[in-house]
Amino acid sequence: MMSKSISVIIPSHNGGQTIGKCLTAVFSSRHDDFEVIVVDDGSTDGSVDIIRQFPCKLVHLKKRSGASKARNTGALHAEGKFLFFIDADCIVQENTLAVAEKSIGKRTDTVVGGTYTQLPYDDSFFSAFQSVFINYSETKKDEPDYVATHAMVIDRELFTKSGGFPENFLPILEDVEFSHRIQRTGYKLRMDPGILVTHIFNFTFQRSIRNAIRKSKYWTAYSLTNKDILADSGTASAELKTSVVSLFLIGLLCIFFLVSGNPLLPLLMGAVFILDVFVNRKFLSALYSAKGFLFSIKAAAYYFSLYSLAVGTGALAGIGEYLKSVDYKGAPA
Questions:
Q1: Under a CB-based contact definition with an 8 Å cutoff, are residues 99 and 191 in contact?
Q2: How does DSSP assign 225-283, residue by residue?
Q3: What is the signed CA dihedral for 17, 33, 81, 153, rounded to 10 degrees?
Protein backbone atom coordinates (compact mmCIF):
# COMPACT_ATOMS: atom_id res chain seq x y z
CA MET A 1 0.00 0.00 0.00
CA MET A 2 1.42 3.36 -1.00
CA SER A 3 1.93 5.96 1.72
CA LYS A 4 -0.18 9.10 1.67
CA SER A 5 1.19 12.49 0.72
CA ILE A 6 0.03 14.19 3.90
CA SER A 7 -0.59 12.96 7.45
CA VAL A 8 -3.06 14.98 9.49
CA ILE A 9 -2.09 14.72 13.17
CA ILE A 10 -4.61 15.64 15.86
CA PRO A 11 -3.95 15.45 19.62
CA SER A 12 -7.12 14.97 21.65
CA HIS A 13 -7.73 15.14 25.38
CA ASN A 14 -11.38 14.99 26.46
CA GLY A 15 -12.37 16.49 23.12
CA GLY A 16 -15.78 14.92 22.99
CA GLN A 17 -17.54 18.21 22.25
CA THR A 18 -15.41 19.04 19.22
CA ILE A 19 -13.50 16.04 17.86
CA GLY A 20 -16.50 14.73 15.88
CA LYS A 21 -16.91 18.05 14.09
CA CYS A 22 -13.14 18.19 13.50
CA LEU A 23 -12.97 14.73 11.94
CA THR A 24 -16.15 15.20 9.90
CA ALA A 25 -14.55 18.26 8.30
CA VAL A 26 -11.24 16.51 7.62
CA PHE A 27 -12.92 13.55 5.93
CA SER A 28 -15.06 15.95 3.89
CA SER A 29 -11.92 17.37 2.32
CA ARG A 30 -11.73 17.61 -1.46
CA HIS A 31 -8.14 16.37 -1.16
CA ASP A 32 -8.04 12.58 -1.18
CA ASP A 33 -4.37 11.73 -0.65
CA PHE A 34 -4.14 11.91 3.13
CA GLU A 35 -4.32 9.91 6.33
CA VAL A 36 -5.55 11.02 9.74
CA ILE A 37 -3.85 10.12 13.01
CA VAL A 38 -5.61 10.98 16.26
CA VAL A 39 -3.58 10.60 19.43
CA ASP A 40 -5.81 10.22 22.46
CA ASP A 41 -4.03 11.88 25.38
CA GLY A 42 -5.54 9.94 28.27
CA SER A 43 -9.14 11.02 27.71
CA THR A 44 -11.84 10.13 30.24
CA ASP A 45 -14.91 11.65 28.57
CA GLY A 46 -15.84 9.01 26.02
CA SER A 47 -14.34 10.93 23.09
CA VAL A 48 -12.51 7.78 21.99
CA ASP A 49 -15.86 6.23 21.04
CA ILE A 50 -16.49 9.20 18.74
CA ILE A 51 -13.04 8.90 17.16
CA ARG A 52 -13.60 5.19 16.44
CA GLN A 53 -16.50 6.13 14.16
CA PHE A 54 -14.02 7.58 11.63
CA PRO A 55 -11.47 5.77 9.39
CA CYS A 56 -8.40 7.17 11.14
CA LYS A 57 -5.45 5.74 13.00
CA LEU A 58 -6.14 5.95 16.73
CA VAL A 59 -3.14 5.93 19.05
CA HIS A 60 -3.65 5.79 22.82
CA LEU A 61 -1.46 7.35 25.49
CA LYS A 62 -2.15 5.57 28.78
CA LYS A 63 -2.03 8.76 30.82
CA ARG A 64 -2.28 12.42 29.96
CA SER A 65 1.14 13.51 28.73
CA GLY A 66 0.46 16.85 27.02
CA ALA A 67 -0.04 18.04 23.48
CA SER A 68 3.68 17.92 22.61
CA LYS A 69 3.95 14.23 23.49
CA ALA A 70 0.74 13.51 21.61
CA ARG A 71 1.91 15.31 18.47
CA ASN A 72 5.33 13.66 18.59
CA THR A 73 3.68 10.27 19.00
CA GLY A 74 1.42 10.99 16.04
CA ALA A 75 4.43 11.87 13.91
CA LEU A 76 6.05 8.53 14.79
CA HIS A 77 3.00 6.73 13.37
CA ALA A 78 2.76 8.90 10.26
CA GLU A 79 3.49 7.65 6.76
CA GLY A 80 2.90 10.83 4.79
CA LYS A 81 5.63 12.88 3.18
CA PHE A 82 4.26 15.92 4.98
CA LEU A 83 2.81 16.31 8.46
CA PHE A 84 -0.13 18.65 8.99
CA PHE A 85 -0.80 19.48 12.64
CA ILE A 86 -4.18 20.79 13.76
CA ASP A 87 -6.10 20.75 17.05
CA ALA A 88 -9.19 18.76 18.02
CA ASP A 89 -11.25 21.96 18.13
CA CYS A 90 -10.32 23.07 14.61
CA ILE A 91 -12.50 22.71 11.50
CA VAL A 92 -10.58 22.51 8.22
CA GLN A 93 -12.04 23.97 5.05
CA GLU A 94 -12.75 21.68 2.08
CA ASN A 95 -9.56 22.90 0.38
CA THR A 96 -7.32 23.27 3.44
CA LEU A 97 -5.29 20.10 2.90
CA ALA A 98 -4.83 20.78 -0.80
CA VAL A 99 -3.68 24.34 -0.11
CA ALA A 100 -1.31 23.14 2.61
CA GLU A 101 0.32 20.54 0.37
CA LYS A 102 0.61 22.94 -2.55
CA SER A 103 2.03 25.63 -0.29
CA ILE A 104 4.84 23.51 1.11
CA GLY A 105 5.51 21.92 -2.30
CA LYS A 106 9.15 20.90 -2.42
CA ARG A 107 10.19 23.21 0.42
CA THR A 108 11.83 20.61 2.63
CA ASP A 109 13.67 23.42 4.43
CA THR A 110 10.52 25.36 5.37
CA VAL A 111 7.75 25.11 7.95
CA VAL A 112 4.52 26.58 6.59
CA GLY A 113 1.78 27.91 8.81
CA GLY A 114 -1.86 28.78 8.44
CA THR A 115 -4.26 30.48 10.80
CA TYR A 116 -7.84 30.75 11.99
CA THR A 117 -10.60 32.07 9.78
CA GLN A 118 -11.60 35.63 10.70
CA LEU A 119 -14.82 34.38 12.24
CA PRO A 120 -15.04 31.34 14.52
CA TYR A 121 -17.33 28.32 14.47
CA ASP A 122 -19.32 29.73 17.40
CA ASP A 123 -20.29 33.28 16.60
CA SER A 124 -20.36 34.83 20.07
CA PHE A 125 -18.80 38.26 20.62
CA PHE A 126 -15.80 37.05 22.62
CA SER A 127 -15.10 34.14 20.25
CA ALA A 128 -15.35 36.44 17.24
CA PHE A 129 -13.03 38.98 18.85
CA GLN A 130 -10.43 36.29 19.56
CA SER A 131 -10.62 34.80 16.07
CA VAL A 132 -10.20 38.17 14.36
CA PHE A 133 -7.32 39.01 16.71
CA ILE A 134 -5.45 35.77 15.97
CA ASN A 135 -6.12 35.88 12.24
CA TYR A 136 -4.84 39.44 12.01
CA SER A 137 -1.83 38.91 14.27
CA GLU A 138 -0.61 35.71 12.64
CA THR A 139 -0.92 36.87 9.03
CA LYS A 140 0.86 40.22 9.29
CA LYS A 141 4.17 38.79 8.10
CA ASP A 142 5.01 36.44 5.25
CA GLU A 143 7.94 35.24 7.36
CA PRO A 144 6.46 34.97 10.85
CA ASP A 145 8.22 34.68 14.19
CA TYR A 146 6.48 31.37 14.84
CA VAL A 147 4.10 28.90 13.22
CA ALA A 148 1.22 27.71 15.40
CA THR A 149 0.22 24.06 15.67
CA HIS A 150 -3.42 24.80 14.93
CA ALA A 151 -2.30 24.81 11.27
CA MET A 152 1.31 23.73 10.71
CA VAL A 153 2.63 21.74 7.74
CA ILE A 154 6.17 20.41 7.70
CA ASP A 155 8.21 17.81 5.83
CA ARG A 156 8.20 14.60 7.88
CA GLU A 157 11.96 14.07 7.58
CA LEU A 158 12.61 17.63 8.74
CA PHE A 159 10.32 17.14 11.72
CA THR A 160 12.12 13.94 12.68
CA LYS A 161 15.50 15.63 12.30
CA SER A 162 14.37 18.56 14.48
CA GLY A 163 13.63 16.36 17.48
CA GLY A 164 9.96 17.36 17.54
CA PHE A 165 8.08 19.44 20.09
CA PRO A 166 9.51 19.89 23.60
CA GLU A 167 7.84 17.48 26.01
CA ASN A 168 9.21 19.02 29.22
CA PHE A 169 8.24 22.63 28.72
CA LEU A 170 5.62 25.18 29.65
CA PRO A 171 1.95 24.10 29.48
CA ILE A 172 1.61 26.09 26.25
CA LEU A 173 3.85 27.73 23.60
CA GLU A 174 5.57 24.52 22.54
CA ASP A 175 5.00 25.58 18.92
CA VAL A 176 6.73 28.92 19.58
CA GLU A 177 9.75 27.17 21.12
CA PHE A 178 9.81 24.69 18.22
CA SER A 179 9.67 27.52 15.67
CA HIS A 180 12.47 29.45 17.30
CA ARG A 181 14.63 26.34 17.68
CA ILE A 182 14.20 25.29 14.06
CA GLN A 183 14.97 28.81 12.85
CA ARG A 184 18.24 28.79 14.79
CA THR A 185 19.30 25.69 12.85
CA GLY A 186 18.84 27.47 9.54
CA TYR A 187 15.33 26.47 8.50
CA LYS A 188 12.65 28.91 7.40
CA LEU A 189 9.13 29.78 8.49
CA ARG A 190 6.46 30.99 6.10
CA MET A 191 2.87 32.05 6.57
CA ASP A 192 0.22 31.14 4.01
CA PRO A 193 -3.06 32.92 4.91
CA GLY A 194 -4.85 30.58 2.52
CA ILE A 195 -4.36 27.66 4.92
CA LEU A 196 -7.39 28.20 7.12
CA VAL A 197 -9.08 26.35 9.97
CA THR A 198 -12.17 27.51 11.82
CA HIS A 199 -11.74 27.37 15.57
CA ILE A 200 -14.36 26.37 18.13
CA PHE A 201 -13.71 28.78 21.00
CA ASN A 202 -16.95 28.79 22.99
CA PHE A 203 -15.60 31.87 24.75
CA THR A 204 -17.53 33.69 27.43
CA PHE A 205 -16.25 36.86 29.04
CA GLN A 206 -14.68 34.84 31.86
CA ARG A 207 -13.01 32.40 29.48
CA SER A 208 -11.67 35.22 27.33
CA ILE A 209 -10.13 36.97 30.33
CA ARG A 210 -8.68 33.76 31.78
CA ASN A 211 -7.19 32.87 28.40
CA ALA A 212 -5.58 36.31 28.08
CA ILE A 213 -4.04 36.12 31.56
CA ARG A 214 -2.77 32.56 31.12
CA LYS A 215 -1.21 33.06 27.71
CA SER A 216 0.36 36.37 28.69
CA LYS A 217 1.83 34.83 31.84
CA TYR A 218 3.63 32.02 30.06
CA TRP A 219 4.55 34.09 27.02
CA THR A 220 6.16 36.76 29.21
CA ALA A 221 8.14 34.20 31.19
CA TYR A 222 9.30 32.53 27.97
CA SER A 223 10.12 35.81 26.23
CA LEU A 224 12.21 37.06 29.14
CA THR A 225 14.16 33.81 29.07
CA ASN A 226 14.46 34.01 25.29
CA LYS A 227 15.45 37.71 25.51
CA ASP A 228 12.84 38.81 22.95
CA ILE A 229 10.25 40.46 25.18
CA LEU A 230 9.89 43.42 22.78
CA ALA A 231 9.58 41.32 19.62
CA ASP A 232 6.56 41.70 17.35
CA SER A 233 5.68 38.02 17.58
CA GLY A 234 2.29 36.96 16.26
CA THR A 235 -0.37 37.32 18.95
CA ALA A 236 2.32 38.76 21.24
CA SER A 237 2.21 41.68 18.85
CA ALA A 238 3.75 45.11 19.02
CA GLU A 239 0.22 46.51 18.84
CA LEU A 240 -0.98 44.54 21.86
CA LYS A 241 2.13 45.41 23.86
CA THR A 242 1.58 49.08 23.02
CA SER A 243 -2.02 48.84 24.19
CA VAL A 244 -1.04 47.23 27.50
CA VAL A 245 1.67 49.82 28.21
CA SER A 246 -0.69 52.64 27.20
CA LEU A 247 -3.43 51.41 29.51
CA PHE A 248 -1.12 51.23 32.51
CA LEU A 249 0.41 54.61 31.65
CA ILE A 250 -3.04 56.21 31.40
CA GLY A 251 -3.91 54.64 34.75
CA LEU A 252 -0.83 56.17 36.37
CA LEU A 253 -1.54 59.58 34.83
CA CYS A 254 -5.10 59.37 36.09
CA ILE A 255 -3.86 58.75 39.64
CA PHE A 256 -1.42 61.66 39.39
CA PHE A 257 -4.24 63.88 38.14
CA LEU A 258 -6.50 62.96 41.03
CA VAL A 259 -3.69 63.77 43.45
CA SER A 260 -2.32 66.92 41.82
CA GLY A 261 -5.17 68.26 39.70
CA ASN A 262 -2.69 69.25 37.00
CA PRO A 263 -4.84 70.19 33.96
CA LEU A 264 -2.13 69.03 31.53
CA LEU A 265 -2.43 65.41 32.62
CA PRO A 266 -5.81 64.72 30.92
CA LEU A 267 -4.33 66.11 27.70
CA LEU A 268 -1.37 63.76 28.09
CA MET A 269 -3.74 60.83 28.71
CA GLY A 270 -5.59 61.73 25.52
CA ALA A 271 -2.34 61.89 23.57
CA VAL A 272 -1.32 58.44 24.84
CA PHE A 273 -4.68 56.99 23.81
CA ILE A 274 -4.53 58.58 20.35
CA LEU A 275 -1.06 57.10 19.85
CA ASP A 276 -2.39 53.70 20.95
CA VAL A 277 -5.24 53.90 18.44
CA PHE A 278 -2.82 54.90 15.69
CA VAL A 279 -0.50 51.96 16.38
CA ASN A 280 -3.51 49.60 16.35
CA ARG A 281 -5.24 51.11 13.32
CA LYS A 282 -4.76 48.05 11.10
CA PHE A 283 -6.17 45.72 13.74
CA LEU A 284 -9.15 48.04 14.20
CA SER A 285 -9.66 47.90 10.44
CA ALA A 286 -9.62 44.09 10.63
CA LEU A 287 -12.33 44.18 13.30
CA TYR A 288 -14.47 46.39 11.07
CA SER A 289 -13.98 44.23 7.98
CA ALA A 290 -14.91 41.11 9.93
CA LYS A 291 -18.27 42.16 11.37
CA GLY A 292 -18.97 45.80 10.72
CA PHE A 293 -19.10 49.06 12.62
CA LEU A 294 -20.99 48.15 15.79
CA PHE A 295 -18.89 45.04 16.41
CA SER A 296 -15.66 46.94 15.79
CA ILE A 297 -16.61 49.66 18.30
CA LYS A 298 -17.52 47.13 20.98
CA ALA A 299 -14.44 45.00 20.24
CA ALA A 300 -12.13 48.05 20.29
CA ALA A 301 -13.53 49.12 23.67
CA TYR A 302 -12.91 45.61 25.05
CA TYR A 303 -9.43 45.43 23.53
CA PHE A 304 -8.23 48.79 24.83
CA SER A 305 -9.61 48.21 28.34
CA LEU A 306 -10.37 44.85 29.94
CA TYR A 307 -8.49 42.66 27.47
CA SER A 308 -5.32 44.76 27.73
CA LEU A 309 -5.72 44.83 31.51
CA ALA A 310 -5.90 41.02 31.56
CA VAL A 311 -2.84 40.73 29.32
CA GLY A 312 -0.96 43.18 31.55
CA THR A 313 -1.95 41.23 34.65
CA GLY A 314 -0.68 38.03 33.06
CA ALA A 315 2.55 39.76 32.08
CA LEU A 316 3.18 40.77 35.70
CA ALA A 317 2.58 37.17 36.75
CA GLY A 318 4.98 36.03 34.04
CA ILE A 319 7.66 38.39 35.30
CA GLY A 320 7.19 36.81 38.73
CA GLU A 321 7.59 33.31 37.25
CA TYR A 322 10.75 34.37 35.46
CA LEU A 323 12.24 35.95 38.57
CA LYS A 324 11.50 32.79 40.58
CA SER A 325 13.37 30.71 38.03
CA VAL A 326 16.35 33.05 38.38
CA ASP A 327 16.23 32.93 42.19
CA TYR A 328 15.96 29.15 42.41
CA LYS A 329 18.46 28.20 39.72
CA GLY A 330 20.81 31.16 39.56
CA ALA A 331 19.95 31.69 35.91
CA PRO A 332 16.81 31.63 33.78
CA ALA A 333 15.46 28.13 33.20
A1: no
A2: HHT-TT--BTTB-HHHHHHHHHHHHHHHHHHHHHHH--THHHHHHHHHHHHHHHHTHHH
A3: -40
The secondary structure element, H or E, covering residue 188 is strand 188-199
Kindly report, residue by residue over 109-156, the tens digit of the pLDDT. Answer: 999 999 999 999 998 999 999 999 999 999 999 999 999 999 999 999
Determine the Cα–Cα distance for residues 12 and 87; give it in Å rounded to an integer: 7
Q: What is the pLDDT of residues 241-271, one digit of tens each?
A: 999 999 999 999 999 999 999 999 999 999 9
Burial of 249 (0-12, 13-18, 19+ CB in 10 A): middle
Residue 212: how many other CB atoms lie within 10 Å:
22
User: What letter would DSSP give residue 186?
Assistant: T
Query: Is there a contact between 139 and 289 (Cβ–Cβ < 8 Å)?
Result: no
pTM of the entire structure?
0.94
Measured distance CA(107)–CA(90) in Å, rounded: 25
Residues sharing a CB contact under 8 Å with residue 131, sequence separation 6 or more, in sequence order: 116, 117, 118, 119, 120, 199, 201
